[in-house]
Amino acid sequence: MPPVSIFLTLQNKKQLTHDVFELEYTSSESLHITPGQFLLCDTAGDPKLRRSYSVSWAAGTSVFFIIKRLPEGKGGSMAICDQTIGHTMQVWWPMGRFILQENTFPKVFIGTGTGFAPLYFMLKYSLKKMNNEKWIMNNGGMFFLFGVRELRDVFYQEELQQWSQESFFDYQICCSRESSSLPDKHREWRVTECLTPENISEMNKTGETEFYICGSPAMVTEVRSMLELYGISKEKVFFEQY
Ligand SMILES: Cc1cc2nc3c(=O)[nH]c(=O)nc-3n(C[C@H](O)[C@H](O)[C@H](O)COP(=O)(O)OP(=O)(O)OC[C@H]3O[C@@H](n4cnc5c(N)ncnc54)[C@H](O)[C@@H]3O)c2cc1C
């Protein structure tokens, strides 16, 4: 389906960290967005400030985003994060081929910063399916590796912790530049340091695991080459970078 334009109205804004915001919009019609897709957003009524944002959750007429406000950028992220409740924004959808494969293969999600956004949609959607529709994964479940710089950059940890009460989900948070001591489930590593040959082989013990990666181009490139080096076939690796 070719992208079509609609208008979204800002309904709610929550500050998740010192520079990351969760924005909830509503549209006049239901949007059928596949987990992983993004919308092209006219952040400030200026074609030069149109930016892509992954949908972090969609239900009925509600659409959520997780956006990092970058004061050093050209202005798109600041414009969208600074919108006030009731602001109306033009968007184009559907966009993107980085989508969740609806199958029962085990899945590993690797995301840094707001690269968590599309992965959050994929994870929440899969967990709901597993709980409500008894969507069973083959020999394993889902694992999320979340990379940030410091502890203050972590968001949605309570939800991750709650999800991890289920036997089929676990997660690890990597804080690459944190100097203070870290709580349970955190490591003072970069995500790539967690991807040892042993860990990758454990994650792929059935030989069927799919890997979904989203974050900075440098991280995505490094993780893809590591997966390739340790024998994961390209067909099992899906990625988005920004
Ligand atoms: C398919 C796609 C989906 C995206 N989804 C999201 C999303 O869900 N959340 C989100 O915050 N951004 C997302 N982005 C990035 C977004 O489109 C903008 O590039 C970003 O908000 C910066 O816009 P700007 O005008 O403020 O700065 P720009 O002047 O456009 O960029 C400034 C610099 O910031 C870097 N940058 C861009 N995005 C990020 C980021 N998230 N974290 C750290 N550095 C970044 C760029 O590499 C660039 O060097 C996505 C990009 C693409 C292509």
Sequence-ordered SSE layout with sheet pairings:
Layout: E1 4-15, E2 20-27, E3 38-42, E4 50-54, E5 57-59, E6 62-68, H1 76-81, E7 88-95, E8 107-112, H2 116-132, E9 142-148, H3 157-163, E10 169-175, E11 186-187, H4 191-194, H5 197-203, E12 210-215, H6 217-229, E13 237-241
Parallel strand pairs: 8-9, 8-12, 9-10, 10-11, 12-13
Antiparallel strand pairs: 1-2, 1-7, 2-6, 3-4, 3-7, 5-6
This protein binds flavin-adenine dinucleotide (FAD).
Flavin-adenine dinucleotide is lined by residues 38, 51-54, 65-68, 70, 73-78, 96, 113-114, 117, 240, 242.
Please characterize this protein's 3D structure:
There is one protein chain. The chain is an alpha/beta fold. It has 2 domains: 4-95, Elongation Factor Tu (Ef-tu), domain 3 (Beta Barrel); 107-241, 3-Layer(aba) Sandwich (Rossmann fold), CATH 3.40.50. The protein is 22% helix and 33% strand. The protein contains 6 helices and 13 strands. The protein has helices at 76-81, 116-132, 157-163, 191-194, 197-203, 217-229; strands at 4-15, 20-27, 38-42, 50-54, 57-59, 62-68, 88-95, 107-112, 142-148, 169-175, 186-187, 210-215, 237-241. Strands 4-3-7-1-2-6-5 form a 7-stranded antiparallel beta sheet. Strands 11-10-9-8-12-13 form a 6-stranded parallel beta sheet, with helices on both faces. Strand 12 (210-215), helix 6 (217-229) and strand 13 form a beta-alpha-beta unit. The longest helix is centred in the middle third of the chain and has 17 residues, at 116-132. The radius of gyration is 18 Å and the shape is globular. The two termini are 24 Å apart. The model has no long low-confidence stretch (mean pLDDT 93). The site of flavin-adenine dinucleotide has 22 residues, from strand 4, strand 6 and helix 1.
